[in-house]
Design a protein that fits this description.
The protein has 518 residues and is α+β, with helices and mostly antiparallel strands. It has 18 helices and 13 strands. It is globular and about 60 Å long. The relative contact order is 0.17.
Length: 518
């Protein structure tokens, strides 16, 4: 990390990139469960919302009941969130009496079988996607997959690669974009704990996540428990980190190493996963018995992505066209916002990503990987604990001191980005206040609401979800500038799925073989 804040600002100020830095593109992928009477819906994805296989904006994630709402990449951050609002409006009118669950952690799940796996039709592509989810179900269980969050996709302005900002890197890198984006990725991993502190909103879980291990947890009622200082149990060892991937080492030190490691993990057989095929009579229990079925199975807080729209595997696209944007995956749903995120958060993340891009980012060592994992787990489970210490470069440092260092340096960047439409500096100040007063964080506000109002966790989700549903039902269609687009896309996506199914002539086995041979 840069010790002298001036070095960071000078680097930008003395370049010809200063005017275009705030014009990066962003997009949102928001996962949310369809819920009826505090229970995950067992209904099929409604046909009026189109084909989840082919729809550009409304699809499903792991479960048939788990919506994934996708905005196109745009520079105008406000317009991007309006688009997401308009998708919510459209969906709310097409899910009958169900609500969109506003919390990252799902309602009480009695059994894995209560979570229906997403179905994508009879085409080879559809079958491939369903088989992959079957594999996840057998490997990790369905409960973990029902957790929802927001993926924040970000790309620097395309013109920036021609500026003088990265002149030093141009002399040593043949693939400038790849080198810079991997620099960003490494820093995102190093400082991911900060995002868990600010944007974590899952201090409460239902009892099925604890599997009789209630150590440290306090009981809310018969079905919900909480950790007093937790920020994001979604990102703890109870959630997405609770998976058999500790042996999967994927390097972030270069694009080439990243591709090589992912290729190895998707090609090497795993003895534990071989047993799945022996223990089930399902024809398509999983795509294969390798450490990772496909690259998507590698859970990381951020990943390099290609904007190629083909159905090629990720590493093929990265190898052919390089990195186009970064997918940042650590955001919990903000239950206090109808769409799960607000504009200030988007601008904060923009500054954070630029900060991670401009900061020095040496290769990550094995020792540092363990530090990163430990810091993330500490903040996810105890982030608001007074006096909490983290580890930075083998030395203890208080969370508050480290956070204030980062925010001071982010403030210097925000000052350069400030313009007539966005006061980035005041947004960073607002977040800074949450370091001094952890009660202002999303996780504290959510927990305080549950405790002080003595409201049941499931009732809270249901009440908020109903309020948002009523808002959208009361909103006139004429107020939704994307309504016709979403209606047309829904109809067209169904036609595209039918065409895919008619065109699927080869066997599924050959389809899968071709996918991995690309």
């Amino acid at each position: 990390m840069i010790n002298d804040v001036e070095d960071l600002t000078k680097k930008v100020f003395n370049s010809d990139a200063i005017d275009i830095l705030p014009s990066g593109s962003f997009g949102i992928e928001k996962e949310s469960l369809r819920v009826s009477q505090s229970t995950i819906s067992t209904k099929l994805h409604q046909a009026s919302m189109g084909s989840p296989l082919c729809h550009r904006y409304i699809t499903t994630d792991f479960s048939e009941a788990q919506l994934e709402l996708i905005t196109p990449p745009v520079v105008d951050k406000k317009k991007g969130l309006i688009f997401l609002e308009n998708i919510h409006h459209f969906v709310s009118h097409n899910i009958d009496d169900e609500i969109i669950w506003p919390l990252s952690m799902p309602p009480l799940i009695q059994s894995d079988e209560d979570i229906p796996i997403a179905s994508y039709g009879s085409s080879n592509l559809g079958l491939f996607k369903t088989t992959y989810r079957n594999g996840l179900s057998h490997r990790y269980g369905r409960t973990m997959q029902a957790i929802s969050g927001i993926h924040f996709n970000y790309s620097l302005p395309e013109e920036i690669w021609e500026t003088s900002l990265f002149d030093r890197e141009k002399t040593v890198s043949k693939n400038l974009k790849g080198a810079i984006y991997f620099r960003t990725l490494r820093n995102l991993h190093r400082m991911n704990w900060l995002i868990l502190y600010f944007l974590g909103a899952s201090p409460v879980v239902t009892k099925n996540f604890l599997k009789n291990n209630h150590s440290g947890f306090q009981k809310l009622n018969n079905h919900a428990y909480y950790l007093p200082f937790a920020t994001s149990l979604r990102m703890s060892d109870l959630g997405y980190q609770n998976i058999n991937q500790s042996k999967v080492a994927i390097s972030l030190n270069s694009l080439q190493q990243y591709i090589f490691d992912l290729k190895q993990a998707t090609a090497k057989e795993c003895d534990d996963f071989k047993k799945i095929n022996q223990e089930t009579t399902e024809e398509y229990a999983q795509i294969n018995s390798n450490i990772l079925q496909i690259e998507d199975e590698y859970y990381a807080v951020s990943r390099p992505k290609s904007s190629g729209i083909s159905n090629q595997r990720l590493i093929t696209k990265l190898n052919d066209t390089g990195v186009d944007y970064i997918e940042f995956r650590s955001l919990d749903l903000n239950p206090f916002q109808r769409i799960g995120i607000d504009l200030d958060t988007v601008h904060f993340l923009e500054v954070f990503l630029i900060y991670c891009t401009l900061n020095p980012s040496p290769p990550i060592t094995d020792v540092e990987i363990e530090e990163i994992k430990q810091n993330d787990l500490l903040v996810a489970t105890r982030g608001r604990e007074p006096g909490l210490n983290l580890i930075n470069n083998r030395k203890k440092i208080s969370l508050s001191n480290w956070a204030n260092q980062i925010l001071d340096e982010m403030t210097s960047i925000a000052g350069l980005l400030d313009n007539t439409t966005t006061d980035f500096s005041s947004i960073i100040d607002k977040f800074s206040n949450q370091i001094a007063d952890s009660e202002q964080t999303l996780s504290a506000m959510l927990l305080n609401k549950v405790l002080t109002e003595k409201i049941d966790f499931l009732e809270l989700g249901r009440t908020i979800g109903n309020d948002y549903k009523n808002y959208y039902i009361g909103m006139e269609v004429s107020k939704n500038s994307e309504w016709s687009l979403l209606e047309d896309e829904s109809a067209d996506s169904l036609k595209r799925q039918v065409q895919l199914e008619q065109d699927s002539k080869q066997s599924f086995k050959d389809f899968a073989k071709e996918y991995f041979n690309e």
